[in-house]
Automatic annotation (TrEMBL):
GO terms for biological process: lipopolysaccharide core region biosynthetic process. The lineage of its organism: Bacteria, Pseudomonadati, Pseudomonadota, Alphaproteobacteria, Hyphomicrobiales. Pfam families: Glyco_transf_9 (PF01075). Keywords: Glycosyltransferase, Transferase. PANTHER family: TETRAACYLDISACCHARIDE 4'-KINASE-RELATED. It comes from the Bacteria. GO terms for cellular component: cytosol. The keyword Translocase does not apply. This is Glycosyltransferase family 9 protein. InterPro entries: Glyco_trans_9, LPS_LOS_Heptosyltrfase. The keyword Zinc does not apply. It comes from Lichenifustis flavocetrariae. GO terms for molecular function: ADP-heptose-lipopolysaccharide heptosyltransferase activity.
Length: 325
């Protein structure tokens, strides 16, 4: 590794993704920053999430890992040389994958390392993989001697753009509810099938309903009676989407990354979980953000979701009235 004669401590934090997991790691990044106030914090991530880390207030610099095939030894050698040239002093592995375990053994051997990469002997791991995401981060950082103050309370409100002009352009005035009807194309079973009925019912109750579909959700969006924010504006960035969530009276979404963005940006909302994952394990519950878990999303009827949404909206109004009194 290269040698720097005099330098502040340089910390490498590895977080490749995915989007929801990255959002959940925000509090851990905040605690790492607080624990190393004079250090340079360098994030190693994938191209898709570069802009998020560049805006993150707890990160000084971003490195990109394209996660080339580990069988391409020539490209892995280039990555190894590039990362060793950084002369980092310590690594926090917030990805904890088999790939990052290989990095520890092949690139950073001998350096202080916080993390527990996935291995076949997972039954003997000190941090059980079935624990909730934020609890696993908490255990990891405490084992590394990092005081935990923010890890279990991620706050990505810094991601939110001012979307006033975007909403005005789309004709959105007054209280509105945002729906997140999509999910990863790899997991169609995570999509609750009754968003059209929910949107119609919410409109009957006097709410404007908006959606901001992703690139593979155009067909789905056409079935929902809602204002499509992408129709004139084009696809929203993560930062614009966070801004929309922050301005929403309520958000309803599936078990998907944008729902985590809404939950951890301070929006009030409700996530709908099927059998793939438990909301407790996903750590999506917040004071203002709840979840419904069912064994089959097709059995979760629109009337039940509507009741929960209206109930939470009424609770929110009462809380604000009490606070403002």
């Amino acid at each position: 590794m290269s040698v720097r004669l005099s330098h502040p401590e340089r910390i490498l934090v590895i977080k490749h993704g995915a989007f929801g997991d990255l959002i959940q790691s925000e509090g851990a990044l905040h605690d790492i920053r607080d624990h190393h106030p004079g250090a340079e914090i360098v994030a190693l991530t994938t191209p898709a999430y570069r802009s998020i880390f560049e805006r993150c207030p707890w990160v000084d610099r971003v490195l990109i890992d394209r996660r080339e095939s580990r069988w391409r030894l020539d490209r892995m050698a280039v990555l190894r040389a590039r990362l060793r040239a950084e002369a980092v002093d310590r690594i926090y592995d917030l990805q904890n994958s088999a790939r990052t375990g290989a990095y520890r053994d092949w690139i950073f051997r001998g350096l202080p390392w916080s993390g527990e990469p996935q291995r076949r002997d997972w039954l003997f791991r000190l941090i059980p993989p079935e624990l909730p995401s934020l609890e696993r981060f908490t255990i990891q950082l405490r084992k590394a001697g990092v005081p935990v103050r923010h890890t279990e309370r991620p706050d990505v409100s810094w991601m939110a753009d001012d979307v006033s002009s975007l909403l005005t352009e789309a004709g959105v005035e007054g209280p509105f509810i945002t729906l997140i009807p999509g999910a990863s194309a790899k997991h169609p079973g995570k999509r609750w099938p009754y968003y059209p009925a929910l949107a119609a019912a919410l409109r009957d109750h006097g709410y404007r309903v908006v959606i901001a579909p992703g690139p593979d959700e155009a067909g789905l969006a056409k079935t929902i009676p809602a204002i499509d924010l992408t129709r004139e504006h084009g696809r929203l960035s993560w930062f614009e989407l966070a801004g929309v969530f922050r301005r929403s009276a309520f958000v309803v979404g599936n078990d998907t990354g944008p729902s985590h963005l809404a939950a951890h940006s301070g929006a009030a909302g409700l996530a709908l979980f099927g059998p793939h994952f438990r909301p407790e394990q996903a750590s999506i519950h917040r004071e203002q953000f709840d979840a419904i878990a069912v064994s089959d999303l097709s059995d979760l009827k629109p009337a039940e979701v509507l009741h929960r949404v209206l109930e939470r909206l009424n609770e929110t109004r009462k809380t604000r009235a009490t606070r403002d009194a």
